């Protein structure tokens, strides 16, 4: 883990005490004031004005509390998620809070509000928020480096639970939808999911996967529909050093053969049969989170893939992977959580597109700097945040 980058807020320019004075007033107050001091005066005022406007636009860093760059990176990506930001800024979350646990959502909203309304551009400390996320998920207690994607999953789950519109979940029942068409079955399964899990977080981040299992003996195809909060994409390995995001999506959705010990039981044959399994996307979420599987799945992470994955900034068209090809599935990138370094010592940063200005910025703990959109693609990209176009 690299040392955290901290940026001490510079002391206000002494002249900022006189923000409303005009040039002639200053000259009248002290005719002996030198020209150079006048220049420095107004440069100071200008800097303070820029700092204030910068702060008002959400361009505020987060202090590293000790190996918490993974948390800061994800928080900046979520802060630049337009609909989630507005949900917090407008206090809309308050009408959805349940009666028991509310502390995590309240601290998250408070942090987002501070990042977007602070009159100072000094970095903000997320310590109160950290206290609440580690109460919800004790694995984040302490100051060890953690995985950003795992943190995102726990955080969204925690926020969802506190603003779930369903206060009393119905008893789980098993219903047979096999007589319905796949499209109708998918809609029924989605409705059943919403009977238990229904929140602004679900509205934004959750989609639905369709898994099709086909028996190679009798041809019977069974379908299962599951909600997803993100897609973990394997990185396709090619002879050269670059792959495309579409290559990774095709690898994720490619047809797999289940044979040998993996043979499932065919519903029609009533026996274990060699089958093929394939994923398609039944329902596309408003916010699509794509996790590039750079780390080996061993309990102790022994390796990291630094393959350059070429992902589109605009007009990512995923209709190829839709269950229904007429689905609206075009996305634009707005944030990336990056991991640099190795499995032994790494550092997380975020690249985010400001939802108001459309400009890209690097968020490196306390430090926030403008960047060119041409720099966003890199071999450090780890979690990609896309918004469906037309929203």
Automatic annotation (TrEMBL):
Its EC number is 3.4.19.12. Gene3D superfamilies: Cysteine proteinases. It is found in: Cytoplasm, Perinuclear region. Residues 60-389 form the USP domain. PROSITE patterns: USP_1, USP_2, USP_3. CDD domains: Peptidase_C19R. GO terms for biological process: protein deubiquitination; proteolysis; rhythmic process. It is an enzyme of class 3 (hydrolase). One of its GO terms (molecular function) is metal ion binding. Keywords: Biological rhythms, Cytoplasm, Hydrolase, Metal-binding, Protease, Thiol protease, Ubl conjugation pathway, Zinc. Pfam families: UCH. One of its GO terms (cellular component) is perinuclear region of cytoplasm. It catalyses: Thiol-dependent hydrolysis of ester, thioester, amide, peptide and isopeptide bonds formed by the C-terminal Gly of ubiquitin (a 76-residue protein attached to proteins as an intracellular targeting signal). Belongs to the peptidase C19 family. USP2 subfamily. This is Ubiquitin carboxyl-terminal hydrolase. It comes from Ictalurus punctatus. The gene is usp2a.
